Amino acid sequence: MKLDATDLRYLTTEEFRVLTAVEMGSKNHEVVPTQLISQISKLKSGGINKLLGGLAKRGLVSRVKNVKYDGYRLTYGGYDYLALRALSKRDTIAAVGNQIGVGKESDIYVVSDPEGEERVIKLHRLGRISFRAIKTKRDYLGKRRSASWMYMSRLAAQKEWAFMKILHEHGFPVPRPIDHARHCILMEFIDAYPLRQISSHPSPGTLYSTLMDIIVSFAHSGLIHGDFNEFNILIHRVTGSPIVIDFPQMVSTRHADAEWYFNRDVDCIRTFFKRRFGYESLVWPKFTSTLKEGENKRGKGEEGENGFRLDVVVAASGFGGKEQEELEKVLLILTRLCIC
Ligand code: ADP
Ligand code: MG
């Protein structure tokens, strides 16, 4: 999907009101009735059809003819627009540049701030690839039969933001988070290659240890990355040091399946180093002893005495709750389907 930055400037106040009304109506309606859009936007129904037609032409909403009523759905294009507009109003972005990544569940663009400094925006797109697969498994979703993908994408962005912020504040090698809005996260641009693109390394052993140390220090802080692999580790072009990205699936070391997630992260690195660099180490972190070390480091009994349980800190920052449980369920289904 293309991001049209010029749109940011060329939407009239009325068009913007209508677009926002469609978004608001989407909270309770899969297809928002035209009449409701008119009510929310406080515009007369005569004018509204023309405005909606214009927005539909630009791909910001799409018209759905239902048996019961006609209405509109917000598209990802419209959702992108609203998020980008919010960021540009706050002056955290000024222009959108090239797309640098197409993840399975996200689009990544280089953007610039008003001073022309490069930044990266990640737009979450849950359900884009997995839509069909998850539809066939929709019983997993319980009562919420038709999961709203935009809503899920917003939850994923919220979670990623909360974790990136806390990790950055505590000195982990992650990009500096700058701003977020709806399903988007704005962060520092890292001049790096994904580890996957590196065919040889002067010292695989050192890199292996550094990466395992990161897994260990996450766990000492009560966290597991959950998708720690060659796609989500960037190697800085100048310094050669690793930077970790992609946090929507992070879990606490108190999660019921924590050990499984931890081992999977460790195994991903072992397997990759063996296959890519022919490097095998006799040592790798073990879950139980790593947690013990963490407890000892923090100071027995008194949590947070000499360090922090970041899973607790992030929960205290208001993150979590029922909504996030729902997201976790969906992410788990995607992982099980091996498409995440
Ligand atoms: P996904 O959730 O879709 O896997 P990621 O967060 O892993 O998305 O990002 C996908 C790709 O985008 C990365 O592999 C990397 O090439 C690029 N990328 C992501 N964040 C940054 C950043 N801050 N700086 C530079 N490149 C980035
Ligand atoms: Mg990724």
UniProtKB/TrEMBL annotation:
GO cellular component term, pick one: preribosome, small subunit precursor
Coiled coil: none
Taxonomy, superkingdom: Eukaryota
Organism listed in the record: Serendipita vermifera MAFF 305830
Keyword ATP-binding part of the UniProt annotation: yes
A GO biological-process term: maturation of SSU-rRNA
Name the UniProt record assigns to this protein: Serine/threonine-protein kinase RIO2
A molecular-function term among this protein's GO annotations: protein serine/threonine kinase activity
Cofactor entry: Mg(2+)
Alphabetical list of PROSITE patterns matching this protein: RIO1
Keywords: ATP-binding, Kinase, Magnesium, Metal-binding, Nucleotide-binding, Serine/threonine-protein kinase, Transferase
EC numbers on record: 2.7.11.1
Domain RIO kinase: 65-289
Catalysis: reaction(s): L-seryl-[protein] + ATP = O-phospho-L-seryl-[protein] + ADP + H(+); L-threonyl-[protein] + ATP = O-phospho-L-threonyl-[protein] + ADP + H(+)
Enzyme class: transferase
